[in-house]
Design a protein that fits this description.
By secondary structure, the protein is mainly alpha-helical. It has helices at residues 3-42, 45-79, 81-114, 121-150, 167-171, 176-205, 215-249, 251-257, 291-297, 318-349, 356-365, 368-382, 395-398, 406-432, and strands at 156-158, 161-163, 269-276, 281-288, 387-389, 393-394.
């Protein structure tokens, strides 16, 4: 492997690891706030216990996310100095605002964790809402910087020198609205289904899922499926907006996502398939005539640019992008199907559905959000290649000239393995192992 490939691999690994904690920072506060709101409405202690346990889990995820996020900030400067020298003045503001939101999140989380008996219930709930808002804001500011890399704006380029910098135009670049919306919804889908899968697994382990001692897991499942299911149904709408944006701003990325080679009207929407980049064809796909044209321009007769419009050296790795996009879409529709079945059973029974076959489906769907999340970021980042700043700076020109990048890659791989194992152990002990004698095991109502 070359040093460029080691640098890209280290950045990819760091992003793939950190994004798991970033989405938890956005969505877990929503779960704990909803649980506390149920406690304030019903007075049942089981809901308070659920909110407290989720808050402790959120604190663990927040701490590890802070570590991995700090590593990423250093990697940007150490691995990609040319990029930071060129773009630092343009993306500095969203990163600064992200730091401000991060500290606000830490303050509100501290009040939430330790203020149960020290502040009024309404003020305590407001602190939880503060954690939610600041967590989402923190992630949105970072997404703004990434969106700028896809649609760089807010400056003039004179003889290779950046002038007339407008940080507000850079932050609110054309890709920002669709990318931020898609990311926030992805967080709620991913965390909602992951948490649902874990608690459904505990319910499946028991001979009787309706036992009073399992009230904690039933309550958790009801809230997590509500959040994840609603977001799963809204997410395709944001995906549609993203496709229309890409058709105008990054047609090459869109063509790679669909493995679309020839510029044509009635461009087909491809389901599955394997791109042959040498022959420039896509084999074994199911093509829907006019589907891509319609999704991109609301007109099945509209012309969609193909990959042959650009030289091979300016194309992203088509196979990786297309397969990742197909994985993301398939996982998304899988979660929609499970959410629809769960909602239908809840409507029919007027209670939390605990059919064992349905709980098995919920467990199986638990990892789908993570698959869609990671695949989506592969589409976003690999689909922009060979550019680190779309149309302006190539990734190969941004990497550090320092040799021996295999060493930090190995070191950080080991660090992430240790952090990952530690998180799993801590969450299992703090959140999921419930003593039947605690209030979470009472026999109160846990219907959604």
């Amino acid at each position: 492997m070359t040093d460029l490939l080691f640098a890209r691999s280290q950045m990819a690994m760091s992003l793939a690891f950190h994004i798991l904690f970033a989405v938890a920072g956005m969505a877990m506060p929503m779960l704990m706030v909803l649980a506390e709101a149920r406690w304030l409405k019903t007075g049942e202690p089981g809901w308070k216990e659920l909110a407290q346990r989720w808050a402790k889990g959120t604190a663990v995820l927040f701490a590890v996310g802070a570590v991995s996020g700090t590593v990423l900030s250093f990697e940007l400067g150490l691995l990609w100095p040319q990029f930071m020298q060129w773009a630092g003045g343009l993306i500095g503001m969203p990163f600064s605002l992200e730091g401000f939101a991060f500290f606000l999140e830490a303050i509100f989380l501290g009040i939430y964790l330790y203020g149960w008996e020290k502040v009024s219930p309404k003020l305590h709930l407001a602190a939880g809402i503060g954690v939610l808002i600041s967590g989402v804001s923190s992630a949105v500011f970072v997404v703004s910087a990434n969106a700028w890399m896809n649609t760089p704006t807010g400056f003039e380029l004179v003889d290779g020198v950046v002038t007339s910098i407008d940080p507000w135009a850079a932050m609110f670049n054309p890709a920002f609205p669709t990318q931020a919306l898609h990311m926030v919804l992805a967080a709620f889908v991913t965390v909602g289904f992951a948490v649902s899968g874990v608690h459904a697994w505990f319910l499946l382990k028991a001979p009787d899922a309706t036992a009073p001692a399992l009230g904690f897991h039933r309550r958790a499942l009801s809230i997590a499926m509500l959040v994840g299911g609603v977001a799963a149904f809204v997410q395709p709408l944001s995906g549609d907006l993203s496709a229309k944006h890409l058709a105008k701003a990054q047609p090459v990325k869109l063509a790679a996502m669909e493995a679309h080679w020839d510029t044509a009207t009635w461009a087909p929407l491809r389901i599955g398939g394997w791109p042959d980049e040498e022959a420039e064809v896509t084999r074994y796909s199911i093509d829907i005539p006019g589907g891509l044209s319609f999704l991109s321009h609301m007109d099945p007769r509209a012309e969609v640019a193909g990959l042959r419009e650009v030289p091979r050296e300016d194309r992203p790795p088509v196979t990786i992008v297309h397969v990742a996009f197909q994985l993301m879409v398939a996982a998304g529709f899988g979660m929609m199907a499970v959410a629809a079945l769960f909602g239908f059973r809840a409507w029919r029974t007027k209670a939390l559905p605990l059919d064992r076959w349905l709980l098995r489906l919920v467990v199986a769907s638990g990892p789908l959000g993570f698959i869609a999340l990671e695949a989506g970021w592969v589409v976003t980042e690999v689909g922009r290649q060979p550019w680190v700043i779309h149309g302006i700076m190539r990734t190969a020109d941004a990497v550090t000239p320092m040799p021996g990048l295999a060493v930090p890659f190995a070191a950080f791989t080991f660090l992430y393995i240790i952090l990952g194992v530690s998180v799993v152990v801590l969450l299992r002990r703090i959140v999921f192992l419930t003593d039947p004698r605690t209030p979470a095991a009472d026999g109160g109502s846990d219907h959604a």
